[in-house]
Amino acid sequence: MVKKRYAFMSEVPEELRAKLGRYFSNVGGRTFTITGLPPELTGGSLARYSRAPTGIQLTLINEFLDSHGEPSQEKGTELMDRVLNAFGDDSVGELEGVHVGIEEISQLATKGIEDRRIGGSPIEQSTRYVRYDQKDEQGRWRYLRPREIMESGAGKTFESANDRAFQVYSEGIRRLTEHFKGEFPRSSQKLAVNRGGQMVQVGEAELEGEKERAAFNMAYNFTVRCAALDVGRCVLPSSTLTHIGVYGNGRFFTNLITYLKSSEIPEENARGAELEEELKKTIPTFIKRNRQNPAVAERNVRMRGLARELFSGITPTADKVTLVPRASYFDETVALSLFPYTNLSLQQITEQVSAFDEPRKLSLLDAYIGKRESRRDRSGRSLEAGYPLTFDLVGGFAEFRDLERHRMLTQQRQMLTPDLGFILPPEMGVIGLESEVKEVVDMMASLNGDLRRAGLEVSAQYATLFNHRLRFMLGMNLREFQHLSELRTIPQGHFSYRSMAMEMADKVKRAYSWTARAIEHINYTDPGNKIARSTEQSKIAGRNLAAGIDAGSDLV
Q1: CA distance 91 to 456
Q2: pLDDT tens-digit profile of 158-185?
Q3: What are the residue ranges spanned by the domains of the chain?
Q4: Which residue, of 69, 149, 356, 553, has the fewest CB within 10 Å?
Q5: pTM to 2 decimal places
Protein backbone atom coordinates (compact mmCIF):
# COMPACT_ATOMS: atom_id res chain seq x y z
CA MET A 1 0.00 0.00 0.00
CA VAL A 2 1.34 3.42 -0.98
CA LYS A 3 1.71 5.69 2.03
CA LYS A 4 -0.61 8.71 1.89
CA ARG A 5 1.05 12.11 1.65
CA TYR A 6 -0.60 15.14 3.23
CA ALA A 7 -0.54 18.68 1.87
CA PHE A 8 -2.29 20.32 4.84
CA MET A 9 -2.38 19.64 8.57
CA SER A 10 -6.19 19.58 8.42
CA GLU A 11 -5.93 16.32 6.43
CA VAL A 12 -3.86 14.54 9.09
CA PRO A 13 -5.83 11.94 11.10
CA GLU A 14 -6.22 12.62 14.80
CA GLU A 15 -4.14 9.58 15.81
CA LEU A 16 -1.17 10.92 13.82
CA ARG A 17 -1.59 14.40 15.27
CA ALA A 18 -1.53 12.86 18.73
CA LYS A 19 1.76 11.15 17.95
CA LEU A 20 3.19 14.44 16.69
CA GLY A 21 2.54 15.87 20.13
CA ARG A 22 5.42 13.77 21.44
CA TYR A 23 7.84 15.75 19.27
CA PHE A 24 6.31 19.20 18.73
CA SER A 25 5.17 21.54 21.48
CA ASN A 26 2.47 23.17 19.32
CA VAL A 27 1.02 20.67 16.84
CA GLY A 28 -0.36 22.54 13.84
CA GLY A 29 1.01 25.84 15.11
CA ARG A 30 3.40 28.24 13.40
CA THR A 31 6.00 28.35 16.19
CA PHE A 32 7.04 25.34 18.27
CA THR A 33 9.90 23.49 19.90
CA ILE A 34 11.15 20.13 18.66
CA THR A 35 12.15 17.45 21.15
CA GLY A 36 12.44 13.70 21.53
CA LEU A 37 13.18 12.65 17.96
CA PRO A 38 15.85 9.97 17.47
CA PRO A 39 19.44 11.12 16.77
CA GLU A 40 19.96 12.55 13.29
CA LEU A 41 16.23 12.66 12.55
CA THR A 42 15.80 16.21 13.86
CA GLY A 43 18.59 17.42 11.61
CA GLY A 44 17.28 15.39 8.71
CA SER A 45 13.80 16.85 9.08
CA LEU A 46 15.10 20.39 9.38
CA ALA A 47 17.30 19.88 6.33
CA ARG A 48 14.17 19.33 4.27
CA TYR A 49 13.10 22.95 4.88
CA SER A 50 15.27 23.93 1.91
CA ARG A 51 13.69 21.48 -0.54
CA ALA A 52 10.27 20.35 0.73
CA PRO A 53 7.08 22.36 0.02
CA THR A 54 5.58 21.55 3.41
CA GLY A 55 6.46 22.62 6.95
CA ILE A 56 8.48 20.32 9.18
CA GLN A 57 5.48 18.71 10.89
CA LEU A 58 3.99 17.55 7.60
CA THR A 59 7.45 16.70 6.28
CA LEU A 60 8.00 14.41 9.27
CA ILE A 61 4.69 12.66 8.63
CA ASN A 62 5.21 12.35 4.87
CA GLU A 63 8.87 11.38 4.78
CA PHE A 64 10.14 10.21 8.16
CA LEU A 65 7.32 8.29 9.87
CA ASP A 66 6.75 4.64 9.09
CA SER A 67 3.35 3.08 8.38
CA HIS A 68 2.67 2.91 12.13
CA GLY A 69 3.38 6.59 12.61
CA GLU A 70 6.72 5.97 14.32
CA PRO A 71 9.86 7.98 13.42
CA SER A 72 12.45 6.24 11.29
CA GLN A 73 15.99 7.19 12.24
CA GLU A 74 17.31 5.33 9.18
CA LYS A 75 15.46 7.73 6.87
CA GLY A 76 16.96 10.72 8.67
CA THR A 77 20.45 9.25 8.44
CA GLU A 78 19.96 8.46 4.76
CA LEU A 79 18.95 12.05 4.03
CA MET A 80 21.82 13.49 6.04
CA ASP A 81 24.29 11.24 4.24
CA ARG A 82 22.96 12.46 0.90
CA VAL A 83 22.78 16.16 1.70
CA LEU A 84 25.79 16.55 4.00
CA ASN A 85 28.29 14.11 2.60
CA ALA A 86 27.24 13.64 -1.02
CA PHE A 87 26.04 17.14 -1.89
CA GLY A 88 28.53 18.88 0.41
CA ASP A 89 25.97 21.15 2.06
CA ASP A 90 28.10 22.05 5.11
CA SER A 91 25.47 24.25 6.76
CA VAL A 92 23.23 21.20 7.25
CA GLY A 93 25.92 19.91 9.62
CA GLU A 94 24.80 22.55 12.09
CA LEU A 95 21.23 21.26 12.40
CA GLU A 96 21.95 18.54 14.97
CA GLY A 97 23.64 19.06 18.30
CA VAL A 98 24.99 16.88 21.10
CA HIS A 99 26.12 17.42 24.69
CA VAL A 100 29.38 15.67 25.53
CA GLY A 101 31.50 15.34 28.65
CA ILE A 102 35.27 15.09 28.38
CA GLU A 103 36.75 14.24 31.74
CA GLU A 104 40.22 13.73 33.22
CA ILE A 105 41.74 15.90 30.51
CA SER A 106 44.69 18.22 31.04
CA GLN A 107 44.33 21.97 31.34
CA LEU A 108 46.55 22.26 28.26
CA ALA A 109 44.30 20.10 26.09
CA THR A 110 41.13 21.94 27.14
CA LYS A 111 42.50 25.03 25.40
CA GLY A 112 42.72 23.17 22.10
CA ILE A 113 39.07 22.19 22.43
CA GLU A 114 37.94 25.69 23.36
CA ASP A 115 39.90 27.19 20.45
CA ARG A 116 37.37 25.65 18.02
CA ARG A 117 35.28 28.75 18.30
CA ILE A 118 32.20 28.40 16.08
CA GLY A 119 29.30 26.07 16.82
CA GLY A 120 30.40 24.87 20.24
CA SER A 121 29.69 26.04 23.79
CA PRO A 122 32.19 24.73 26.36
CA ILE A 123 32.25 24.97 30.14
CA GLU A 124 35.00 23.60 32.34
CA GLN A 125 35.66 22.91 35.98
CA SER A 126 36.80 26.16 37.57
CA THR A 127 40.09 26.49 39.44
CA ARG A 128 38.57 29.54 41.15
CA TYR A 129 35.81 27.51 42.82
CA VAL A 130 37.05 23.90 42.99
CA ARG A 131 39.95 22.70 45.13
CA TYR A 132 42.49 20.62 43.27
CA ASP A 133 44.25 19.19 46.31
CA GLN A 134 42.35 15.89 46.31
CA LYS A 135 44.23 12.78 45.21
CA ASP A 136 42.91 10.02 42.94
CA GLU A 137 42.06 6.45 43.94
CA GLN A 138 45.71 5.44 43.64
CA GLY A 139 46.73 8.19 46.04
CA ARG A 140 48.32 10.29 43.29
CA TRP A 141 47.91 13.98 42.58
CA ARG A 142 45.54 14.63 39.67
CA TYR A 143 47.76 15.55 36.74
CA LEU A 144 48.40 13.98 33.35
CA ARG A 145 51.53 11.91 32.93
CA PRO A 146 52.00 12.21 29.15
CA ARG A 147 53.22 8.98 27.62
CA GLU A 148 55.79 10.71 25.43
CA ILE A 149 57.35 12.39 28.46
CA MET A 150 57.18 9.37 30.74
CA GLU A 151 58.95 7.29 28.07
CA SER A 152 61.56 9.94 27.28
CA GLY A 153 63.76 9.35 30.30
CA ALA A 154 62.37 12.47 32.02
CA GLY A 155 59.41 10.71 33.63
CA LYS A 156 60.70 10.69 37.20
CA THR A 157 61.75 14.33 36.96
CA PHE A 158 58.34 15.23 35.57
CA GLU A 159 56.56 13.50 38.45
CA SER A 160 58.87 15.07 41.03
CA ALA A 161 58.20 18.59 39.71
CA ASN A 162 54.45 18.09 39.48
CA ASP A 163 54.20 16.39 42.87
CA ARG A 164 56.08 19.27 44.45
CA ALA A 165 53.81 21.79 42.71
CA PHE A 166 50.72 20.10 44.15
CA GLN A 167 52.27 19.87 47.61
CA VAL A 168 52.92 23.62 47.60
CA TYR A 169 49.44 24.27 46.18
CA SER A 170 47.79 22.19 48.89
CA GLU A 171 49.73 23.86 51.70
CA GLY A 172 49.15 27.24 50.08
CA ILE A 173 45.36 26.78 50.04
CA ARG A 174 45.41 25.92 53.74
CA ARG A 175 47.52 28.96 54.71
CA LEU A 176 45.76 31.33 52.29
CA THR A 177 42.39 30.42 53.75
CA GLU A 178 43.57 31.54 57.19
CA HIS A 179 45.22 34.62 55.69
CA PHE A 180 42.06 35.77 53.93
CA LYS A 181 39.99 35.24 57.05
CA GLY A 182 42.09 38.10 58.40
CA GLU A 183 41.83 40.13 55.20
CA PHE A 184 38.04 39.66 55.11
CA PRO A 185 36.91 39.48 58.75
CA ARG A 186 33.40 38.27 59.45
CA SER A 187 32.59 41.72 60.79
CA SER A 188 32.98 43.14 57.27
CA GLN A 189 30.73 40.55 55.61
CA LYS A 190 27.20 41.63 54.73
CA LEU A 191 24.18 39.70 53.57
CA ALA A 192 21.41 41.03 51.32
CA VAL A 193 18.11 40.24 53.07
CA ASN A 194 14.48 41.28 52.80
CA ARG A 195 13.34 43.64 55.52
CA GLY A 196 9.80 44.92 55.09
CA GLY A 197 9.79 44.42 51.34
CA GLN A 198 13.17 46.14 50.91
CA MET A 199 16.49 44.40 50.19
CA VAL A 200 19.06 45.69 52.67
CA GLN A 201 22.62 44.75 53.65
CA VAL A 202 22.96 43.45 57.20
CA GLY A 203 25.90 42.28 59.27
CA GLU A 204 26.21 39.12 61.34
CA ALA A 205 24.72 40.69 64.49
CA GLU A 206 21.56 41.66 62.58
CA LEU A 207 20.74 38.21 61.20
CA GLU A 208 17.37 36.65 61.95
CA GLY A 209 16.82 32.90 62.04
CA GLU A 210 18.83 29.85 61.06
CA LYS A 211 18.33 30.30 57.31
CA GLU A 212 19.87 33.78 57.33
CA ARG A 213 22.77 32.62 59.50
CA ALA A 214 23.39 29.65 57.17
CA ALA A 215 23.30 31.95 54.12
CA PHE A 216 25.69 34.38 55.82
CA ASN A 217 28.14 31.60 56.69
CA MET A 218 27.98 30.26 53.15
CA ALA A 219 28.66 33.70 51.63
CA TYR A 220 31.56 34.31 53.99
CA ASN A 221 33.14 30.89 53.50
CA PHE A 222 32.78 31.17 49.73
CA THR A 223 34.41 34.62 49.75
CA VAL A 224 37.42 33.31 51.67
CA ARG A 225 37.64 30.14 49.65
CA CYS A 226 37.56 31.92 46.28
CA ALA A 227 40.21 34.38 47.43
CA ALA A 228 42.47 31.51 48.52
CA LEU A 229 41.95 29.55 45.31
CA ASP A 230 42.50 32.65 43.14
CA VAL A 231 45.99 33.04 44.57
CA GLY A 232 46.90 29.43 45.31
CA ARG A 233 46.35 28.23 41.75
CA CYS A 234 49.48 30.12 40.71
CA VAL A 235 51.49 26.88 41.11
CA LEU A 236 49.02 24.49 39.48
CA PRO A 237 50.70 22.84 36.48
CA SER A 238 49.20 22.92 32.99
CA SER A 239 49.14 19.12 33.26
CA THR A 240 46.43 19.40 35.97
CA LEU A 241 43.45 17.18 35.13
CA THR A 242 40.03 18.75 34.82
CA HIS A 243 36.59 18.14 33.32
CA ILE A 244 34.95 19.94 30.43
CA GLY A 245 31.44 19.84 29.02
CA VAL A 246 30.61 20.91 25.47
CA TYR A 247 27.44 21.41 23.52
CA GLY A 248 28.15 21.51 19.80
CA ASN A 249 26.66 20.95 16.40
CA GLY A 250 27.83 18.45 13.80
CA ARG A 251 30.09 20.85 11.93
CA PHE A 252 31.76 21.92 15.19
CA PHE A 253 32.47 18.33 16.20
CA THR A 254 33.77 17.48 12.73
CA ASN A 255 36.25 20.35 12.96
CA LEU A 256 37.12 19.50 16.56
CA ILE A 257 37.86 15.84 15.85
CA THR A 258 39.92 16.81 12.81
CA TYR A 259 41.94 19.20 14.97
CA LEU A 260 42.46 16.64 17.74
CA LYS A 261 43.50 13.91 15.32
CA SER A 262 45.92 16.29 13.59
CA SER A 263 47.47 17.71 16.76
CA GLU A 264 51.14 17.31 17.65
CA ILE A 265 50.08 16.43 21.21
CA PRO A 266 49.43 12.68 21.70
CA GLU A 267 46.89 13.33 24.47
CA GLU A 268 44.76 15.28 21.98
CA ASN A 269 45.09 12.51 19.38
CA ALA A 270 43.76 9.99 21.90
CA ARG A 271 40.88 12.21 22.99
CA GLY A 272 39.96 12.82 19.35
CA ALA A 273 39.67 9.08 18.73
CA GLU A 274 37.57 8.66 21.89
CA LEU A 275 35.28 11.52 20.96
CA GLU A 276 34.76 10.16 17.45
CA GLU A 277 33.88 6.74 18.84
CA GLU A 278 31.24 8.19 21.16
CA LEU A 279 29.72 10.54 18.58
CA LYS A 280 29.36 7.64 16.16
CA LYS A 281 26.72 6.37 18.59
CA THR A 282 24.58 9.50 18.24
CA ILE A 283 25.40 11.59 15.13
CA PRO A 284 27.61 9.34 12.96
CA THR A 285 26.60 10.91 9.67
CA PHE A 286 27.34 14.44 10.88
CA ILE A 287 30.98 13.67 11.69
CA LYS A 288 31.87 11.46 8.74
CA ARG A 289 34.04 14.13 7.17
CA ASN A 290 36.53 14.41 10.03
CA ARG A 291 40.05 13.33 9.14
CA GLN A 292 43.61 13.46 10.32
CA ASN A 293 45.45 16.16 8.39
CA PRO A 294 49.26 15.70 8.46
CA ALA A 295 49.67 19.10 6.77
CA VAL A 296 48.84 20.83 10.07
CA ALA A 297 51.81 19.38 11.93
CA GLU A 298 54.02 19.85 8.88
CA ARG A 299 53.11 23.54 8.75
CA ASN A 300 53.81 24.00 12.46
CA VAL A 301 57.24 22.38 12.22
CA ARG A 302 58.05 24.41 9.10
CA MET A 303 56.98 27.71 10.66
CA ARG A 304 58.82 27.09 13.93
CA GLY A 305 61.99 26.50 11.96
CA LEU A 306 61.54 29.70 9.95
CA ALA A 307 60.81 31.70 13.10
CA ARG A 308 64.03 30.46 14.72
CA GLU A 309 66.03 31.46 11.64
CA LEU A 310 64.46 34.90 11.36
CA PHE A 311 64.39 36.00 14.98
CA SER A 312 67.31 34.34 16.75
CA GLY A 313 69.09 36.73 19.09
CA ILE A 314 66.14 39.13 19.50
CA THR A 315 65.04 39.61 23.12
CA PRO A 316 61.26 39.53 23.51
CA THR A 317 59.49 42.45 25.14
CA ALA A 318 57.00 41.56 27.86
CA ASP A 319 54.66 44.54 28.20
CA LYS A 320 51.35 43.47 29.71
CA VAL A 321 49.17 45.32 27.18
CA THR A 322 50.18 46.67 23.76
CA LEU A 323 47.75 48.15 21.27
CA VAL A 324 49.69 47.19 18.17
CA PRO A 325 50.16 50.06 15.68
CA ARG A 326 48.63 49.48 12.26
CA ALA A 327 50.88 48.37 9.43
CA SER A 328 50.15 47.42 5.85
CA TYR A 329 47.59 44.63 5.44
CA PHE A 330 50.26 42.44 3.85
CA ASP A 331 52.74 42.99 6.68
CA GLU A 332 50.09 42.37 9.34
CA THR A 333 49.12 39.06 7.72
CA VAL A 334 52.70 37.81 7.38
CA ALA A 335 53.57 38.91 10.93
CA LEU A 336 50.53 37.15 12.37
CA SER A 337 51.49 34.01 10.44
CA LEU A 338 54.75 33.93 12.40
CA PHE A 339 53.31 34.98 15.77
CA PRO A 340 52.40 31.54 17.22
CA TYR A 341 55.86 30.16 16.46
CA THR A 342 58.07 32.54 18.41
CA ASN A 343 58.12 34.33 21.77
CA LEU A 344 58.45 37.85 20.32
CA SER A 345 55.70 40.44 20.53
CA LEU A 346 53.50 41.00 17.51
CA GLN A 347 54.89 44.52 17.20
CA GLN A 348 58.48 43.22 17.15
CA ILE A 349 57.58 40.68 14.48
CA THR A 350 55.77 43.28 12.37
CA GLU A 351 58.75 45.63 12.51
CA GLN A 352 61.04 42.85 11.28
CA VAL A 353 58.63 41.77 8.54
CA SER A 354 58.21 45.32 7.25
CA ALA A 355 61.93 45.37 6.40
CA PHE A 356 61.71 42.24 4.23
CA ASP A 357 61.36 42.53 0.47
CA GLU A 358 58.19 41.33 -1.21
CA PRO A 359 59.53 37.96 -2.47
CA ARG A 360 60.60 37.06 1.07
CA LYS A 361 57.21 38.01 2.50
CA LEU A 362 55.46 35.96 -0.18
CA SER A 363 57.63 32.94 0.59
CA LEU A 364 56.73 33.20 4.28
CA LEU A 365 53.04 33.44 3.45
CA ASP A 366 53.33 30.43 1.12
CA ALA A 367 55.04 28.47 3.89
CA TYR A 368 52.18 29.25 6.24
CA ILE A 369 49.38 28.44 3.78
CA GLY A 370 51.09 25.29 2.49
CA LYS A 371 49.56 23.01 -0.11
CA ARG A 372 45.78 22.92 0.01
CA GLU A 373 44.24 19.86 -1.60
CA SER A 374 40.71 21.30 -1.63
CA ARG A 375 38.62 24.19 -0.36
CA ARG A 376 38.14 22.27 2.89
CA ASP A 377 41.84 22.66 3.73
CA ARG A 378 41.29 26.02 5.32
CA SER A 379 44.25 28.12 6.36
CA GLY A 380 44.98 29.03 9.96
CA ARG A 381 43.60 32.03 11.78
CA SER A 382 46.54 34.25 10.89
CA LEU A 383 44.68 35.11 7.68
CA GLU A 384 42.18 36.96 9.89
CA ALA A 385 44.72 39.79 10.26
CA GLY A 386 43.68 43.37 9.62
CA TYR A 387 41.36 44.27 12.50
CA PRO A 388 41.33 47.94 13.57
CA LEU A 389 42.11 46.92 17.16
CA THR A 390 44.84 44.33 17.70
CA PHE A 391 46.30 43.69 21.14
CA ASP A 392 49.50 41.93 22.11
CA LEU A 393 48.92 40.70 25.67
CA VAL A 394 51.21 39.09 28.23
CA GLY A 395 49.56 37.58 31.27
CA GLY A 396 49.35 34.39 33.26
CA PHE A 397 47.95 31.23 31.73
CA ALA A 398 45.09 31.66 34.22
CA GLU A 399 44.18 35.07 32.76
CA PHE A 400 44.30 33.77 29.21
CA ARG A 401 41.88 30.99 30.13
CA ASP A 402 39.22 33.61 30.90
CA LEU A 403 39.82 35.95 27.97
CA GLU A 404 40.00 33.03 25.54
CA ARG A 405 36.26 32.64 25.98
CA HIS A 406 35.75 35.53 23.56
CA ARG A 407 35.80 33.17 20.62
CA MET A 408 34.14 35.50 18.11
CA LEU A 409 37.23 37.67 17.83
CA THR A 410 40.55 36.65 16.32
CA GLN A 411 42.91 35.14 18.83
CA GLN A 412 46.15 33.25 18.72
CA ARG A 413 48.60 32.28 21.42
CA GLN A 414 52.20 31.29 21.60
CA MET A 415 53.34 28.09 23.24
CA LEU A 416 53.36 27.84 27.02
CA THR A 417 56.94 28.23 28.23
CA PRO A 418 58.80 29.72 31.22
CA ASP A 419 60.51 32.18 28.82
CA LEU A 420 58.49 35.26 29.82
CA GLY A 421 58.75 34.67 33.54
CA PHE A 422 56.39 33.84 36.41
CA ILE A 423 53.93 36.10 38.23
CA LEU A 424 54.53 35.61 41.96
CA PRO A 425 51.49 36.72 44.00
CA PRO A 426 52.63 38.78 47.00
CA GLU A 427 50.30 36.80 49.25
CA MET A 428 52.50 33.72 48.81
CA GLY A 429 55.27 35.68 50.50
CA VAL A 430 52.94 36.91 53.24
CA ILE A 431 52.02 33.32 54.16
CA GLY A 432 55.66 32.22 54.10
CA LEU A 433 55.67 30.13 50.91
CA GLU A 434 57.62 32.39 48.55
CA SER A 435 60.76 30.21 48.61
CA GLU A 436 58.69 27.05 48.03
CA VAL A 437 56.95 28.65 45.04
CA LYS A 438 60.30 29.72 43.59
CA GLU A 439 61.56 26.16 44.08
CA VAL A 440 58.64 24.83 41.99
CA VAL A 441 59.21 27.52 39.34
CA ASP A 442 62.87 26.56 39.07
CA MET A 443 62.03 22.84 38.84
CA MET A 444 59.54 23.48 36.04
CA ALA A 445 61.91 25.75 34.12
CA SER A 446 64.66 23.15 34.28
CA LEU A 447 62.29 20.36 33.22
CA ASN A 448 60.86 22.46 30.40
CA GLY A 449 64.34 23.13 29.05
CA ASP A 450 65.28 19.44 29.23
CA LEU A 451 62.17 18.43 27.31
CA ARG A 452 62.72 21.03 24.60
CA ARG A 453 66.34 19.96 24.16
CA ALA A 454 65.13 16.36 23.88
CA GLY A 455 62.94 17.30 20.91
CA LEU A 456 59.67 17.43 22.86
CA GLU A 457 59.11 21.13 22.23
CA VAL A 458 55.32 20.91 22.00
CA SER A 459 54.86 18.49 24.91
CA ALA A 460 57.19 20.63 27.03
CA GLN A 461 54.16 22.88 27.53
CA TYR A 462 53.04 20.43 30.21
CA ALA A 463 56.05 21.60 32.25
CA THR A 464 54.62 25.04 32.98
CA LEU A 465 52.49 26.60 35.71
CA PHE A 466 49.31 28.66 35.76
CA ASN A 467 51.18 31.86 36.56
CA HIS A 468 53.83 31.47 33.91
CA ARG A 469 53.41 34.37 31.53
CA LEU A 470 51.90 33.57 28.17
CA ARG A 471 51.77 35.85 25.14
CA PHE A 472 48.57 35.93 23.14
CA MET A 473 46.94 38.32 20.71
CA LEU A 474 43.35 39.46 20.29
CA GLY A 475 42.09 41.20 17.17
CA MET A 476 38.66 42.77 17.03
CA ASN A 477 36.44 45.60 15.90
CA LEU A 478 35.01 48.21 18.26
CA ARG A 479 31.73 46.38 18.80
CA GLU A 480 33.50 43.27 20.05
CA PHE A 481 35.79 45.41 22.20
CA GLN A 482 32.71 47.04 23.69
CA HIS A 483 31.50 43.60 24.73
CA LEU A 484 34.87 42.38 26.03
CA SER A 485 35.89 45.50 27.93
CA GLU A 486 32.56 46.09 29.64
CA LEU A 487 32.07 42.43 30.54
CA ARG A 488 35.61 41.76 31.76
CA THR A 489 35.72 44.77 34.08
CA ILE A 490 32.63 43.89 36.13
CA PRO A 491 33.61 43.71 39.83
CA GLN A 492 32.87 40.01 40.24
CA GLY A 493 35.46 39.16 37.58
CA HIS A 494 38.97 38.00 38.40
CA PHE A 495 41.22 40.91 39.40
CA SER A 496 44.02 39.92 36.99
CA TYR A 497 41.96 40.04 33.81
CA ARG A 498 39.96 43.02 35.13
CA SER A 499 43.15 45.09 35.33
CA MET A 500 44.20 43.90 31.88
CA ALA A 501 40.83 44.90 30.37
CA MET A 502 41.02 48.31 32.08
CA GLU A 503 44.45 48.92 30.59
CA MET A 504 43.27 47.79 27.16
CA ALA A 505 40.41 50.30 27.34
CA ASP A 506 42.73 53.12 28.42
CA LYS A 507 45.02 52.49 25.46
CA VAL A 508 42.15 52.38 22.98
CA LYS A 509 40.76 55.68 24.29
CA ARG A 510 44.18 57.32 24.13
CA ALA A 511 44.67 56.17 20.55
CA TYR A 512 41.10 56.94 19.42
CA SER A 513 39.44 59.39 21.79
CA TRP A 514 36.08 59.13 20.02
CA THR A 515 35.73 55.48 21.10
CA ALA A 516 35.04 56.55 24.71
CA ARG A 517 31.37 57.13 23.91
CA ALA A 518 31.03 53.45 22.86
CA ILE A 519 32.64 51.95 25.98
CA GLU A 520 31.04 54.06 28.68
CA HIS A 521 30.12 51.08 30.89
CA ILE A 522 33.65 50.00 31.77
CA ASN A 523 33.83 49.51 35.52
CA TYR A 524 37.00 50.98 37.05
CA THR A 525 35.95 50.42 40.68
CA ASP A 526 37.96 48.25 43.06
CA PRO A 527 40.86 47.48 40.68
CA GLY A 528 42.57 45.39 43.36
CA ASN A 529 39.43 43.29 43.84
CA LYS A 530 39.52 43.75 47.60
CA ILE A 531 35.82 44.59 48.01
CA ALA A 532 34.15 42.85 45.08
CA ARG A 533 34.61 39.31 46.36
CA SER A 534 32.56 39.78 49.51
CA THR A 535 30.04 42.13 47.89
CA GLU A 536 29.27 39.68 45.10
CA GLN A 537 28.89 36.72 47.44
CA SER A 538 26.56 38.81 49.62
CA LYS A 539 24.29 39.40 46.62
CA ILE A 540 24.38 35.77 45.49
CA ALA A 541 23.65 34.43 48.98
CA GLY A 542 20.82 36.94 49.38
CA ARG A 543 19.22 35.90 46.09
CA ASN A 544 19.51 32.22 47.03
CA LEU A 545 18.00 32.90 50.43
CA ALA A 546 15.04 34.78 48.92
CA ALA A 547 14.44 31.98 46.42
CA GLY A 548 14.77 29.22 49.01
CA ILE A 549 17.80 27.73 47.23
CA ASP A 550 20.33 25.67 49.20
CA ALA A 551 23.72 26.32 47.58
CA GLY A 552 25.65 24.22 50.08
CA SER A 553 26.85 21.81 47.39
CA ASP A 554 28.92 24.65 45.89
CA LEU A 555 31.23 24.44 48.90
CA VAL A 556 31.86 20.69 48.77
Answers
A1: 38
A2: 999 999 999 999 999 999 999 999 988 9
A3: 9-95
A4: 553
A5: 0.88
